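Troubleshooting: if your tokenizer reports a length mismatch, compare your output against this known-good record of 194 residues.
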Amino acid sequence: MKRIVFGLVAVAALLLAACAPLVTQSPSGKFSPVNAQAIDGNERVLLKGADVVTYFTKNAYTQGNPSIKSNYENVTFYFSSAENKALFDKAPTKYLPEFGGYCANGIVYSIPWGGDADTFEMIDGKLYIFGGKGSHDAFMLDVPKNMAYANKYWKEEINGNNAFTHRTLRTTIGRVAHYKSGAELAAEVAAAKK
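Known-good structure output:
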């Protein structure tokens, strides 16, 4: 009997853990879905607390301080200084990362997933986050083409919808026609560097 109870508790815990992204990454509001996590007692902290303002003011990644924060559209933002918080509070939309802070290269394939705050690119005054150097380099091989795909999928499929559900569908049964695996993208990046 104890094994059955333990098994049921384990299954329930797994189901609850799987549901966390359903809620955390899909706040009610105009800025959704987002690359956010529950941190420090805050339900939705964008980019694990990176200071979004320093990307624009210093073209640099800086970790924010949990004691200096603002809330915009049900998403919490951390800042490295009171000055950056004030800049954000005056014009929050100016400092929002594109595609909710998800990896821009993933959005090229209609997959809202990941995004490392320390791997980014400023393009035409906008902030794009990537899931690592490989994703960044693959995106940069053909910025106009990749930007066109990413903007199309964000606008037509992802923006305002549940990222977890969409990601699950696109990674299992409905890949886009131009989908490339990580290995294929890495090979293209390596070939371009020769």
